[in-house]
Amino acid sequence: MALEEGTEVSVSEAQIAVHWREEEYYAPPAKFIGQANASDPSILARFAEDNFPECFKEYADLLTWDTYWHTTLDTSDPPFWKWFVGGRLNASYNCVDRHLAANRNKAALIWVPEPEEEETRAVTYQELHRRVNEFAALLQDFCGLQTGDRVTFHLPMTPELPIAMLACARLGIIHSQVFGGFSGTACGGRIADSGSRVLVTMDGYYRNGELVDHKAKADEAVSAAREQGQEVDKVLVWRRHHGRYSSRTPMVEGRDFFVDEVLPRYRGRSVEPVSMPAEAPLFLMYTSGTTGRPKGCQHSTGGYLAYVAGTSRYYQDIHPEDTYWCFADIGWITGHSYIVYGPLALGATSVMYEGVPTYPDAGRPWRIAEDLGVTIFHTAPTTVRMLRKTGPDEPAKYGYHFKHMTTVGEPIEPEVWRWYHQTVGKGEAVIVDTWWQTETGGFLGSTLPALQPMKPGSCGPGVLGVYPTVLDEDGNVVEAGSGKAGNICIRNPWPGIFQTIWGQPERFVDTYYRKYCRDEKSTDWHDWPYFAGDGAVEAADGYFRILGRIDDVINVAGHRLGTKELESAVLTVEEVAEAAAVPVMDELRGRVVEMYVSLKPGYTASTEIEQKVAGAIDSEIGKIARPKNVWIVADMPKTRSGKIMRRVIAGISNFADVGDVSTLANPEIVEDIRHHVHSRKVESGELPRELTAEELAEIKAFGRTD
Ligand code: WT7
């Protein structure tokens, strides 16, 4: 249904106007079904609600326990759920040692350096075991670290990162990896918040053909942490090239140590894995809230590991003979769960790539896939869009064959999904669109690849043992098939859920549970739905379509428009590679939409394309959403993880401050866009107006990315 301007529609605040049309189903290929880990529909019954929570025994049984647990789920202190209570295990043992007997010589990790002339390196389970033990010995003896201490990593995508994680896990030390692309200051804030006195970093790494000076950030991080009251007494510096220092910053005497110089002291040392309670924290993963202190999401040992092992088995469909490549950064939860812990718990071969997708050209990922015989490929829509933009014909040039592909991290536009399916997957691969969050440890929404058909743009139903629901502002269920959107919530706890926000238990309860809690005294989990903060629609078939963060909605004259559906409409225009919708303050209509687009190579900006973009919104959504302006730009401001920083372009569109741009992958683009947009606005007579504090706050908070 397309809305006409002026149509009377009453939309409650919780409802986001939904104009998306239903997409067709795609069946999984027969060849995939024939080999899938979950091909018998009885699995759906095993994980049905009447078997909850005992159904998760099936996931826990994928692990080796030192002491078996006695209580599957303890709800006595809601919403601080406890899984597999009484159980003891070690995550490092589960990901490394237990695979030695049968698979000592199998590659645990295959590392692809960015420079193409540098050799790809396989780390066997045997080598991983040795290196994890030696580094654990160093953490214990050289750094004096103990079970329960926190250690911050600021590491790039090299094998030293999973080695360091597993070394901590061996000792029950809580690791906190900060994404390598984050600034030293951001890292320092997380060091302080977690109370780490050891920082593990690397001198440099390759990115887009350049050896980046990374150690410089460690010095900033240490001083930022000090300003916030946390002293760092040791900085361990791995060297990207052994014995050769690649940073221009001096090493600080008595504080900084080259790991390759200290490690030989621990050669051949073995460290007993510490048997940890299932409920012991395994790691922290920081995520930005829209305001304030970063949130250190605390993940457990037993529940988390069981959950990522189970979902890796059934949703990633990893078999012993697969070569599995999750093209994400381990600095994000995706990498923790689905490069390191999930695949290694299953004894799989996990590929890691150091660099950017398009270096030295857009054929690189497909060369890697061909060279290594990758069978399972996992990445984010932003990467798919980038590869579609810069190398639409590249996949066909390479002889790889994927059986399975994943998309994760944001809603994927159906147009982009179809390119992924047809061109990247060559029509042979099944796709799972996995919806989840840093907080949730593992997948929440996805199709079971052999048993449930795919539907472009929808993640699918709740995953095994996870029962989502869409609620309105008052907590009423928005019926499936009603075409109405609301807030997606998970009705039940699941083993991968984070335990708390490090040091901020009140904020944990407030942010995720307070809104829909039916009775704060109740110890029945039914009274404590998990509030995810995403808008979603549930179709009649029980599939969920995620509209994006609730904060990403643009309210035009009372119609709440999801940015994603606006962008999806624009992606139907042939010339468009990427699109981002932002709100502009408007006297009459509250907010109006401005649309930023970048074009595929070979097209140049023209008023004709601008009109096509506006026309696509008219026809797909309605005139109400017609953008005030369409800005064709060379590129969007993006974070290093590839998410478009909407608050930056929203700032530009509103003549407001764009805020901190230091975490952008391409900060130079901001001035170009500002110049282009402001000069055209001024030409057309649009003048900056004074914004209220509320309006400024809204712009600043637009989009979750920070
Ligand atoms: C937010 C979480 C999931 C790990 C990486 C991102 C959005 C995530 C999907 C998807 C639609 C998605 C949601 C969610 N999101 N996956 N498949 N379809 N939206 O983790 O940084 O914590 O972000 O990403 O809005 O709330 P994150």
Approximate helicity band: 25-40%
Q: How many strands in all?
A: 30
> Biggest sheet, in brief?
8 strands, mixed
Strand order, largest beta sheet: 12-11-8-6-7-14-15-23
Shape: globular
In this entry the ligands are:
5'-O-[(S)-butoxy(hydroxy)phosphoryl]adenosine
Low-confidence stretches: 1-17
Mean pLDDT over the full residue set: 93
State which percent range the strand residues make up: 15-25%
Helix/strand class: alpha/beta
Number of helices, where a helix is a run of at least 4 consecutive DSSP H or I residues: 21
Q: What is the CA–CA distance across the termini?
A: 35 Å
- Rg over C-alpha atoms, rounded to the nearest angstrom: 25 Å
Short description:
By secondary structure, the chain is α/β, with parallel strands linked by helices. Helices cover 29% and strands 21% of the residues. The radius of gyration is 25 Å and the shape is globular.
